[in-house]
Amino acid sequence: MSIGNSPEDDRPSIGLALQQARIAAGLTVEEVSNSTRVRMPIVHAIETDDFSRCGGDVYARGHIRMFARAVRLDPDPLVAQYDAEHGGRPAPTPAAPLFEAERIRSDPRRPNWTAAMVAAIVAVVGFVGFTLFTGGDDDSGAAQVAEGSTPDRTTPTPTATKPADPKPVPSDSAIAAAPRDKVTVKLSATERKSWISAKDHNGRLLFDGLLLKGESKTFQDKERVDLVLGDAGAVELFVNGKKVDDQFEPGQVERLSYTKGDPEVG
């Protein structure tokens, strides 16, 4: 008496079933890869029943399900066939024991933030209570110090700041302080700015530009200083320490030369 094959022995492999369904649906491997987001090499491997490239049983089951849906197959029989051929699906771990273990287990390295917060609150409340309780004593002590004898404390006497000495104003006697072996010319723009030019006795330019209001320039030479004042009325002039009292008109251009000794207009 011969024993016939069971219907399960006649069914195609998982990979062959998926491949036949893909061809029947008119889909290419690339189209299946695009629709399932499974890389083409893995699609090719599944069609040859090579599930080693799936990365494990969990990923293999997921790829089989997506592949089957893409080619319009029922994925459950294929997943069941995979489990039967690869040792079956692992039994799920009961949730209650895990929960109880997690709830009972204590981690000694984890700080107890609740206890720390309670301790901090107690410390703050204690400090505030102590401050309020002892506040009256501090006030009475302060009153006794205020009403009793003056504490032996030396109050520093403020030191008066000596005002800066005013700058000396050149006068007729200042000529004695100027070097007698040189010509010293000082220009100050007191009213407004003025263009000035100064040269030594060799004609070398000492300065050529604007003298702004409040600015001063001093020039020296061993023999002579030649000046050009663009607005002589805006300039105050000192020669060899002596103020020149010439009354220059505003906007008046003056060409002047000075030598050693008392100022003389050249």
Task: Give structural notes.
The structure is a single chain. By secondary structure, this protein is α+β, with helices and mostly antiparallel strands. It is 38% helix and 17% strand. The chain is built from 8 helices and 8 strands. The strands form 2 sheets. A 4-stranded antiparallel beta sheet has the order 4-1-6-7, with no helix packed on it. A 4-stranded antiparallel beta sheet has the order 3-2-5-8, with no helix packed on it. Helix 2 (14-24) packs parallel to helix 5 (57-70) and helix 5 packs antiparallel against helix 6 (75-85).
Give the tags.
266 residues, alpha+beta, elongated, four-stranded antiparallel β-sheet
Query: What structural class do you assign from the helix and strand content?
Result: alpha+beta
Uncertain parts = 1-5, 96-104, 136-151, 167-176
Terminal-residue CA separation: 153 Å
Strand order within the widest beta sheet? 4-1-6-7
Percent helix, as a range, is 25-40%
Distinct helical segment count: 8
Mean pLDDT: 77
Radius of gyration: 54 Å
- N to C succession of SSEs: HHHHHHHHEEEEEEEE
For the largest beta-sheet, the strand count, sense and barrel status come to:
4 strands, antiparallel
DSSP E strands, number: 8
What best-fitting shape do the alpha-carbon axes yield?
elongated
Report the sheet-strand fraction. 15-25%
SSE map:
Layout: H1 7-10, H2 14-24, H3 29-36, H4 40-47, H5 57-70, H6 75-85, H7 95-104, H8 113-147, E1 183-189, E2 194-199, E3 205-211, E4 216-221, E5 224-229, E6 235-239, E7 242-243, E8 254-259
Antiparallel strand pairs: 1-4, 1-6, 2-3, 2-5, 5-8, 6-7
Helix pairs in contact: 2-5, 5-6
